[in-house]
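Sharing a chain and its predicted structure for anyone who wants a worked example. Both blocks are below, sequence first, tokens second.
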Amino acid sequence: MDSKILCLGALTCGDASGYEIKKMFEEGPFAHFHQVSFGSIYPSLAKLCEQGKITMREEMQDGRPDKKVYSLTEKGKKSLRRAMKKTPAADKLRSEVMVMFFLQEYLSPDHLRDVLDQQLNFYGALSAKVDALDDTGVPPERMFVRGLGRVFYRTMIDYMEENAHLLLGDKEESSNE
């Protein structure tokens, strides 16, 4: 999805600086299903301002440069509605871990177990993070997305725990001897 559309989407959550938009994609409401870089956020915000889809105001900060805060305009909302009418691209999974699991015969048994444990810890941390979110006042449609995240992370953990033997086979037993 285009970074300009992602910025418009982030601003539906309220006025925000470029840094705050980035945080929404790192640890906020979008963190579990999309990414956007600083390198694309700021040019997108500039372009959206030029197009009148957002506005920018500067807020003074003590001992720091003024903070640029962006707001969604009616023109931006209309643009976002038009963009949301398209058929979404198919999801793509890019995972170094999956490549390592696929090529597991090239890993030592100890390293393979470490990679599996790291991945279980990774999904466990994400699951705990989503579970710790306060659901108070969250609209049902956003709860739907949050619920999908919960199910996804829990399913990944359950599958890896229940099927580790398929990956590790007797390698784990022989490495413990």
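Comments welcome. The chain has a mean pLDDT of 91.
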